[in-house]
């Protein structure tokens, strides 16, 4: 039998597909922004991790709030798939803190929700103008 070269095995990855693990969310005040989103979504702010202040979502993804005061924050869009039974509570919390929500991403239909794809959804701004979306059904993609 010929000598076979042994090749080092590549360590197995812990997942079988690509998954988003974390992303940085720029904020002028990381504490304010992280606490705002956590309060609306019914989550908790985690312990600081280096320069980041994490908000862990239910699917293993972490939003790492990063304070940036030296330049303007460029607003981004973040969409959250939320349980239908928690949606009304989130809307109520937005109303309690005086944040206007909208049925559309352009913020032209205030105080209303949408009913896209058989679910419910709404958009609102966080303290830095990030366009946040809560929805109870994922978008049906072609």
Report on this model:
With 142 residues, the chain is an alpha/beta fold. The chain is 18% helix and 24% strand. The chain has a 4-stranded mixed beta sheet with strand order 4-7-6-5, covered by helices on one side. The chain has a 3-stranded mixed beta sheet with strand order 1-3-2, with helices on one face. Strand 2 and strand 3 form a beta hairpin. The N and C termini lie far apart (54 Å). The mean pLDDT is 92.
Task: Provide key terms for this protein.
142 residues, alpha/beta, four-stranded mixed sheet, 18% helix
Outline type: globular
> What would you report as the Rg, rounded to the nearest angstrom?
20 Å
How far from one another are the termini?
54 Å
Kindly state the number of beta strands.
7
Share of β-strand residues: 15-25%
Fraction of helical residues: 10-25%
Q: Numbering strands along the chain, what is their spatial order in the largest sheet?
A: 4-7-6-5
Main sheet, how many strands, which sense, barrel?
A: 4 strands, mixed
pLDDT below 50 for ≥5 consecutive residues: which ranges?
Answer: none
Q: What is the overall number of helices?
A: 2
In N-to-C order, the SSE pattern is EHEEEHEEE
Q: Mean pLDDT across all residues, rounded?
A: 92
